[in-house]
Write a structure and sequence with these properties.
By secondary structure, the protein is an alpha+beta fold. The protein has helices at residues 2-15, 45-61, 123-145; strands spanning 32-37, 72-82, 85-100, 105-118. It has three helices and four strands. It is globular.
C-alpha cells in the first residue's frame, strides 16, 4: 500500500512537472476582464488601475478584451483573517461556460485559478505588485500553453 501511494505521488508530480498549474490556457483568444474589490478598505480608484493592468497584459499576449465575452478573466480581492492577522486575498481566475458531455448541458466552470494571501505592509504597492505578479504568472503559462 505504501508503494502504491509513492507511485501515485510520483506519477502526479511528474505530470505537472512542466506545467505552471494544472490548468490549460491553450486556445484562449478573448475574455471579458473583471475586477471585484470586496472590501471598503481599498479605494475604488484601484479597480480601474487593475483593469488597465489586465488590458495591457492581455494586449501583450494578443488576447482580446474589447468586446463582451462569456469567458471572464476576473481579479477578486478581499480581506481575510489568518488567526489574529488580517491579510489581503487575491485570486486571478478564468470563468467560462463549458459543455458537459455526459449530460449535454452547459455549465459554468473555473478553468484557471491562481491566488495568494498576504499581510499588507503598504496597501498600494502590495496591491499592485501582487496583481502584477499574478498577471505575469498567467502570462508565462499562457505563452507556454500557446506555443
Amino acid at each position: 500500500m505504501k508503494t502504491f501511494k509513492l507511485l501515485l505521488l510520483l506519477l502526479l508530480s511528474t505530470s505537472f512537472l512542466h506545467a505552471q498549474t494544472p490548468f490549460d490556457l491553450s486556445g484562449i483568444k478573448s475574455y471579458y476582464p473583471v475586477v471585484e474589490i470586496n472590501t471598503d478598505k481599498i479605494d475604488k480608484k484601484y479597480k480601474q488601475i487593475l483593469l488597465d493592468m489586465i488590458a495591457k497584459k492581455s494586449a501583450e499576449l494578443g488576447i482580446g478584451t474589447k468586446n463582451f465575452s462569456s469567458r471572464s478573466l476576473a481579479l477578486l480581492i478581499s480581506f481575510t483573517s489568518v488567526g489574529d492577522t488580517v491579510a489581503l486575498k487575491m485570486e486571478l481566475l478564468i470563468g467560462e461556460p463549458a459543455l458537459r458531455m455526459d449530460a449535454k448541458e452547459e455549465v459554468f466552470v473555473i478553468s484557471y485559478l491562481s491566488g495568494r494571501t498576504f499581510v499588507v505592509e503598504n496597501l498600494e504597492s502590495d496591491l499592485l505588485d501582487n496583481a502584477e505578479e499574478l498577471l505575469e504568472k498567467f502570462a508565462v503559462q499562457y505563452k507556454e500553453d500557446n506555443l
